[in-house]
Amino acid sequence: MTAEALPRQSQHMKHAFGVLAIGSSLWAGGALAHAPEQSLAQCVAPLPDTPDLVQEQAQAWLRHGGGRDARDCLAQADLSLGAYREAALEYRTLSAGSARDSKGATADSNRNDMYAEQEAGAWLLAGDGKAAEQAARLALERDPARLGLRLLLARSLVMQNDFAGGIAALGALPLPESAGGAVDPFLVRALVTRASAYRQLGQNDKGLADANKALALEHDNIEALLERGILEARLAHYAEARHDWDQVIALSPDGHAAYLARQDEAVMDSDPDQN
Question: Which range of residues forms the domain containing residue 237?
């Protein structure tokens, strides 16, 4: 399963393990040392087209007193460029500063609460499960009930091969909404994460049940289809497994999941007992 960025609830960025939502304002540019009116929204606006320029400008803005807005912009630019470790360290600095600020009851507390979550997501993208776990636990101290944070912790534990711990971190998952309701992307990802963890523990029937629940919510979810195919193969349901993997390839022929699906089908083709 690919690591993706998880959604943030501030106005400038969300992640489903790495997906950026960029502000819509156009940035009028200029040397940041001479742009005291610079805002975070203006800083991140060019990210889709020129992330390297945004990174450079954010660094300059930070050097010239841009403060946490400049650091937040720099972190988002680092994420866009795949510099996940650097982004995580920026968010760690922001989170530590926010913790100090909260003692003084500063404004914008909702934004402050998001930095540890952003750090955890960046560490997951960087492949550092232990650092992600530490940041996720810090975020959960502030908001222990939120499923998105529990998912971050679960994924960080699974990354460290603590599969039972990952399942426990998710806790009781909410029941899926009835047909026609809004799909909760956190719930879909949580179900896929738990399905994978069950598989790693050899509990394939439980894993298949979770994969089916995820696909009932989002029938073309690539990660859920890939995972269900693996579970079907483990349960000797080879035709069903091939059907799921064929769907993965059809939905995203050039993606990493399709690459994995083709590998799984090649393994199946090489074993006459699986045909």
Answer: 173-275
